[in-house]
Every structure is written in C-alpha cells, then in structure tokens.
C-alpha cells in the first residue's frame, strides 16, 4: 500500500474507533467549563492558531495546568483594561529575559572551542486589543489588535535590527554586498490586524456570522508543518529553545465563519510573502540577462508576486462531557515566481499541499495527528552562468611576480578546459578593439549545455572556450513529498501526571539541484520526493524537542545556514527543515499540586534519516561515490521546567543533551560550505587562506536556557 493510503486509512480507523468509544459517556467529566478543542471564540480566538498548533506561540495560547484546558491570555487586570459600553479594551505586557549556554551545538566537535556559546537576550511584547459591539449585539462586531516588540542580545547592539543586503557594482562587475545595523533599542510592529463582521458591514442576513481579517497575523495549517507562521524570524541559535522566535507575521487576509454553530467552521486565507512588482524600479530591474533567450530583454517584468492561498475546515465531529474529536482538512497553494537556486530569479515554483489534521480527547486519553502531501513543480530556467567579476591575478614584472585585480569573464577561458585543469579566464576589456570582438563572441554564442567546453572563437591569436559548466539547461522538478506526525498521551493521574509518545516521518530524496555546478553530474529523474513545508518551525506538541527539530529558534540541523528568504526560495536540502526525517519519542509531564504552579516535562527522542545520503571520506575531502552513511542521527534528551515564583512571574529552564549516532560518525570531517566559510571570513584582512577549517564531529552537545517571564 502506498504511504498516502496508509496515512488516510489510519485516520479513518482512528475516527471510527473514537466514535465507537465515545458512544457511551463515562461518568467522569474530563474538563471544567470549557472542553479541549472548543471551537468557540471564548476558548480560542479566531485570529490565533489552532489549539494543537503551538509552535512558537506560547505567548498566544496559555495552557492551564489545573484542568488541562487551553484558553486565551489570562483576564486583564483593571488598571490595564476598560469597558465603556460597547467599547472594551485591554493592554498586555510580557517581558522575557533569558540566558543561553551551549557546547558543541553547531559542529558536535570537542576540538573546536569556538563552538562554545553564551548569550543573554530579552524580549518585550506590548499588546493592545480593542473590541466593539458586545453589549448591544452580543458579539464583537469589530476587533483591532496590535503587538509591539523589542528584542536584543545584551552587549551586541548590532543584533537589534539590520537592513537587507545590497550588492555592490564597480565598473561592470557586481560583487559582494553591504548592509547596515541599527544599534539603538527600537520597537517594531510584530502583529497588527483588524477584524470585522461581514454580516453587519454588508447588511447580510446570514444565520451565522462571518468575519474578515486584514493585516499581519498568525495562521497555520494543521500543526504548522505544511504551513506555519514563521514569516520573519529572529536570529537562530542551534539548540536554544525559545517560544518568541517569530518577529513578524506575514501580511494577508482571512475570511472565516461557521456553517454549523460549534460544529463546522472554515477559514480562507491569503498572504503576500514577497512583492517585486510594486514599483517601476522593481519591474524594470535587469535581472534576466543570463536567462536563455533574454540577453536583449533583461527586465524583470510585471506580476512577480510570491503569494499563498489556503483553506481549511474545522469539524467538531464529537463533543460531549467526556469526548472530543476535531478534524481539520486543509489545502494550500504557493506561487513563487522568483527563486534563487544559483542566481536571483533563476527558477520558479508552484507548490500545492493537501492534508488533514485531527485532535481527540476521550477519558484519560488524548492525541492527534497531521499528514500532508505535496504536488506541483519547480521550473529550473536555462541559465548562462558567465558573469563579469573581479579576479586577483599574478602578473610577472621583470623578475619579481606581482599581482593586480583584473576584470574577467567567470565562465569563459583562454585554454581548452577539457585538457587544462584550471585554464585562465578571458579578460573583460570592452574598451579595446580586440576586447570588443571577444565580448561579442562571448555574448552571442549559442546557449545550450552542449556548448560547454567548446571552442567559440579566436581573437588576436587568443582562443576562447566555454568553461565546462557555463550553460545550465532548463528542467523541471515535480514535488511528490509527504509527511505524517502523530502523538498519543494518557493521564495516569489527572491533572498531575501524564505520559505521551510520538512518531513522525517526512519523506526525503536526493536534491535534484545539488550538483548542477558539476560538469560531470547527471540530472536526476526530476521527481523530488522530499517533503516541503512553508514557514515551518515544528518542534512537537505532546513530546517536544529542544534541540534537533526545526522550530524553537535554532538552525534545523548541524552544519546548515538558514535560508534568508521566508517563502519557498529553494528546495530544502537533505539536512534542513522538516524533510528527510523519521523520529520517535516519549515524554512525562508532571504538574504537582502545590501552592505554586510547577511543570516538569522531560522528553527523549530518537532521529533517523528517511532517505540515505553518502558517507564523507575525510582523506579525500569528498563524499563517497558508493558508500552510504548510516541513517541514525542520534538521541536527544531534554526537559522543560516552569515554576511560578509570583502570580505573574514565572521561572523557566530548558536543557538538552544530544548524543550523535552513526550518521554523524560516518560524515565526520565534513567542512563548512563555501557560503558558511564566506560568512566567517568576511572580516579577515590578513589574506591568509590556509586557516584551520571548522569540521563536523560526532561529540555530545549540551544546551541550557534559563530565564524569567513576566506577564501583566
């Protein structure tokens, strides 16, 4: 049976079993006044993510230990709330100072003492909420919400805010980039939205109210794996858990409402992730000159908008004094017209995902699942990799060699690349007659991978050859990934002691774009079977990761650099995001009955690759051509501890230990990528290029996060 059929069959049997189980109500009442998974806005605000999707959103949804029910923020105190007839409002403040310490969290290598990290960070959120219409209409006809945020690393003013990077151009060569830092405490808008009742605004006589929301707000599908809320995230630190990672939500709209009261409701969502069509400068920017067929038509053109549209139903299939079952089928579509594979806008994609999530409670049991399947494709454009760039070239002067900076064509050479290993690159010299002739040949040669390594002309006795990988032919990658996560929990003693288990699987595949720069590589079949999620920060629900999984504000896996683009900028690599992964885990949640609220949540998780990748041979410095690394990533043990010091002041600590498995032993010695080394080498002024390379190891990693959280 195919995986897709297995997942949906499991969901069908789970729903059938729960319906049969709940047919005869048990005498014990599970929840107090509000049951878990209540669809009404008294329990879960329609603007907030589902109660089973808490990735990075602990500041939105409070889980009350006594009674085990989810609800909105605690009721506001009188000095920060008002009620004037139909108009009501409140102000909420949360301040979170915390300290982080980690050993081996990036490279798992005891021999690299640079991988010892320590930092202090604080985050403050101030939220304003205004509602109108409750007194006369019986519901809030309009609602306005805004959250202001300030976050900084103590002693590092450059961590507060920075501009985006802009490339530099000197003469005809584009190189590097620059950005600036704002080194003063500043406040930005993290979330802002307006919601109003469509019925009242348009005078519609529907039996059920429908609401329209516009602005920047969180929205997730299922558990936030297929689509999460992480539009703009703060700097990530591997192994450091934080539930304040998301610094801004995407701007968009949502139409929501009910078909049947407290039984079936819906959400239709749309968001803009990137807009390159909002100005004349953007639409006329010359970024397509390297695309096949666009040497004389280089403008970007209109309509380059990266957007998401999504929809979901939330069906309260069962809801009585002892049982609750909620089912959420969903679908999304993402159009990304400009992706970065090797160069800006050298590929584009249309990604679709369909899935279903569910949550249930029955007696002392509770659990949930989420499964989704990708469809669509990525279009890799035909591309001429040749560009004008600077090169530091040695020039013999008398008997003493000297060097100078020259401008060259990056993928055109003056000796046969099939014979010479590193042939010299052709000069870019448009001011001389010979230089103009050479550039004319370079710019008019046929664009096809069959021309790689071929002689394209001779000027003034100098031969011109295409380099072995100058041209990249177009091709498509079809998306065929899928994922499944589920967990199950049992209350041994309600509401103080609970045990839980979890299982997760996300399909993996070889990256079809990984070796496009290798002239000897062969393209894969074009079917990418690894799962692709958007804006995902999943770290678990009933069993939670504090180190390895992709959420909680750290780099998803060791030896990866987060993608700066928030949308579907490129296919995930084999070691990044919720892809190519299988895990199992368990947890114990203990909430003792004491005068102070205390929560202790230890977890243990085991991780594997879903799709095997190659070993690394440290003697050759390359991946093995024939041998595969073992699939076992390793074991994570962690614990979350919360202690209420005062009514509104909480102490928390999160620690984790990661023991690498056979996989990291088999890829031990892997160096940082070129992009990572470029970042580390950015401020080196010595010119020395034989620095000791940071290498991946297989030693144990440790992390600790300690802090306070004050809410008012």
The dominant shape is globular
The share of residues in helices is under 10%
Biggest β-sheet description: 18 strands, antiparallel, barrel
State the helix count: 7
- Return residue spans where pLDDT drops below 50 for at least 5 consecutive residues: 1-77, 235-241, 516-522, 551-576, 679-685
Termini gap: 53 Å
Q: How many E strands?
A: 38
Category from helices, strands and their pairing: mainly beta
Give Rg in angstroms: 28 Å
Provide mean pLDDT, rounded: 78
Strand content: over 45%
Short structural summary:
With 712 residues, the protein is mainly beta. The chain has 7 helices and 38 strands.
Characterise this structure:
The chain is mostly beta strands and 712 residues long. It has 7 helices and 38 strands. It has an 18-stranded antiparallel β-barrel. Strands 22, 23, 24, 25 and 26 form a 5-stranded antiparallel sheet that branches. Strands 1-2 form a two-stranded antiparallel ribbon. The longest helix has 19 residues, at 3-21. The chain is globular. The two termini are 53 Å apart.
What layout of secondary structure does this protein have?
Blueprint: H1 3-21, E1 62-64, E2 69-71, E3 81-84, E4 87-103, E5 116-132, H2 134-137, E6 142-153, E7 161-162, E8 166-170, E9 173-178, E10 181-182, E11 188-197, H3 198-202, E12 210-216, E13 232-233, E14 246-248, E15 251-260, E16 264-275, H4 280-284, E17 305-319, E18 323-340, E19 344-362, E20 365-380, E21 383-384, E22 388-397, E23 400-413, E24 425-427, H5 433-444, E25 455-459, E26 462-466, E27 471-472, E28 475-479, E29 482-493, E30 497-506, E31 527-528, E32 581-590, E33 598-608, E34 614-617, E35 622-628, E36 632-646, E37 649-660, H6 662-666, H7 674-680, E38 701-711
Parallel strand pairs: 28-31
Antiparallel strand pairs: 1-2, 3-4, 4-5, 4-38, 5-6, 6-11, 7-10, 8-9, 11-12, 12-15, 13-14, 15-16, 16-17, 17-18, 18-19, 19-20, 20-28, 20-29, 21-27, 22-23, 23-24, 23-26, 25-26, 29-30, 30-32, 32-33, 33-36, 34-35, 36-37, 37-38
């Amino acid at each position: 049976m195919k995986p897709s059929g297995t997942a949906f069959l499991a969901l069908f049997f789970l729903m059938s079993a729960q319906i049969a189980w709940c047919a005869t109500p048990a005498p014990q009442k599970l929840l107090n006044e509000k049951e878990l998974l209540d669809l009404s806005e008294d329990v879960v605000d329609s603007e907030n993510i589902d109660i089973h999707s808490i990735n990075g959103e602990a500041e939105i949804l409070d889980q009350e230990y006594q009674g085990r029910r989810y609800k909105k923020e605690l009721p506001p105190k009188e000095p920060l709330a008002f009620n004037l007839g139909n108009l009501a409002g409140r102000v909420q403040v949360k301040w979170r100072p915390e300290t982080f310490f980690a050993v081996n969290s990036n490279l798992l290598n005891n021999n690299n003492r640079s991988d010892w990290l320590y930092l202090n960070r604080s985050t403050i959120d101030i939220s304003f909420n205004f509602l109108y219409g409750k007194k006369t209409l019986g519901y809030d006809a309009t609602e306005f919400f805004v959250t202001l945020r300030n976050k900084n690393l103590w002693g590092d003013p450059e961590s507060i805010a920075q501009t985006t990077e802009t490339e530099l151009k000197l003469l005809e060569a584009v190189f590097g980039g620059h950005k600036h830092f704002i080194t003063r405490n500043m406040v930005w808008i993290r979330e802002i939205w307006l919601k109003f009742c469509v019925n009242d605004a348009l005078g519609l006589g529907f039996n059920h109210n429908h609401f329209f929301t516009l602005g920047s707000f969180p929205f997730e599908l299922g558990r936030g794996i297929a689509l999460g809320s992480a539009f703009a995230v703060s700097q990530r630190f591997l192994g450091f858990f934080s539930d304040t990672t998301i610094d801004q939500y995407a701007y968009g709209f949502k139409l929501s409402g009910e078909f049947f009261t407290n039984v079936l409701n819906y959400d239709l969502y749309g968001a803009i992730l990137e807009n390159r069509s909002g100005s004349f400068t953007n639409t006329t920017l010359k970024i397509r000159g390297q695309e096949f067929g666009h040497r004389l038509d280089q403008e970007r053109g209109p309509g380059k908008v990266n957007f998401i549209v999504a929809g979901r139903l939330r069906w309260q299939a069962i809801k009585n004094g002892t049982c609750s079952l909620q089912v959420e089928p969903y679908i999304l579509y993402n159009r990304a017209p400009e992706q970065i594979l090797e160069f800006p806008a050298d590929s584009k994609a249309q990604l679709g995902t369909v899935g279903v999530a569910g949550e249930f409670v029955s007696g002392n049991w509770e659990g949930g699942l989420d499964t989704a399947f990708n469809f669509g494709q990525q279009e890799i454009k035909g591309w001429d990799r040749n560009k004008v760039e600077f090169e530091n070239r040695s020039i013999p002067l008398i008997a003493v060699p000297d060097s100078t900076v020259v401008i060259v064509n990056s993928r055109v050479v003056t000796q046969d690349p099939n014979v010479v290993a590193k042939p010299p690159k052709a000069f870019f010299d448009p001011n001389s007659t010979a230089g103009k002739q050479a550039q004319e040949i370079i710019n008019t040669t046929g664009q096809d991978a069959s021309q790689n390594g071929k002689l394209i002309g001779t000027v003034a006795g100098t031969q011109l050859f295409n380099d072995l990988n100058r041209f990249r032919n177009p091709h498509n990658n079809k998306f065929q990934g899928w994922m499944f996560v589920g967990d199950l929990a049992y209350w041994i003693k309600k509401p103080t002691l609970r045990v839980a288990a979890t299982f997760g699987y996300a399909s993996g595949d070889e990256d079809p774009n990984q070796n496009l720069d290798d002239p000897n590589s062969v393209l894969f079949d074009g079917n990418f079977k690894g799962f692709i999620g958007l804006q995902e920060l999943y770290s678990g629900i009933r069993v939670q990761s504090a180190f390895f999984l992709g959420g909680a504000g750290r780099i998803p896996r060791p030896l990866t650099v987060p993608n700066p683009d928030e949308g579907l900028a490129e296919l995930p690599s084999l070691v990044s995001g919720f892809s190519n992964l299988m895990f199992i885990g368990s947890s114990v949640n203990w909430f003792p009955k004491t005068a102070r609220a205390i929560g202790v949540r230890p977890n243990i998780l085991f991780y594997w690759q879903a799709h095997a990748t190659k070993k690394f041979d440290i003697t050759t410095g390359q991946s093995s051509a024939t041998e595969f690394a073992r699939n076992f990533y390793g074991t994570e043990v962690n614990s979350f501890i919360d202690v209420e010091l005062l009514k509104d002041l909480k102490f928390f600590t999160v620690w984790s230990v990661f023991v690498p498995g056979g996989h990291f032993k088999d890829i031990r010695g892997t160096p940082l990528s070129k992009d990572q080394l470029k970042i580390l080498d950015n401020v080196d002024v010595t010119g020395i290029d034989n620095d000791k390379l940071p290498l991946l190891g297989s030693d144990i990693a440790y992390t600790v996060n300690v802090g306070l959280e004050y809410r008012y």
